[in-house]
């Protein structure tokens, strides 16, 4: 049988008796009708009744207040989504630019290495002794008063020494002798 309450909602009408008058006045009254301990006690009583009646005890359910999505929460979720969407494109651009910057820095380092190598080569070619050595090796130049000796060895020990053009058949033969030799070979071919 449910209790009937009178008076203001949320407050109990308790008449102090002679025995409990001092205790009731000293105890603070609760402002809410359903407090957490009261709900737990109620759930425990229901579970005890089920056990006594032979029913299978079910899970203890806790009552939730405001379990639905409130307007404030919906507005907050909408604002968070708007922030995420507004930051997505700039973040994508930022990451793309960072990778492009890294790639350009790598290219810059390669170009700087090439410039350093060319500077070293320029300084090397500015040295007169090095230029003189290159002229002797590649162009077969000699200084005035010096005699140049060229040893021609094409891997055939003395077989070409008696033939005509043996002096021009070496690896260092002038271009026109190589050209004339290829014309003669083409003339002999069937």
How would you sum up this structure, described in words?
With 190 residues, the protein is mainly α. It contains 5 helices and no strands. It has helices at residues 21-26, 36-53, 71-125, 128-138, 175-188. It is rod-shaped, with a radius of gyration of 53 Å.
Tell me, rounded to a whole number, the average pLDDT.
77
Report the sheet with the most strands, covering strand number, pairing sense and barrel closure. none
- Tally of individual helices: 5
The rounded distance between the terminal residues' Cα atoms is: 129 Å
Fraction of helical residues: 40-55%
Strand fraction band? under 5%
- The overall strand count is 0
Structural class: mainly alpha
SSE succession: HHHHH
State Rg.
Answer: 53 Å
Overview in brief:
This protein is mainly α. It contains 5 helices and no strands.
Element layout with pairings:
Blueprint: H1 21-26, H2 36-53, H3 71-125, H4 128-138, H5 175-188
Keywords for this entry:
mainly alpha; rod-shaped; 5 helices; 190 residues
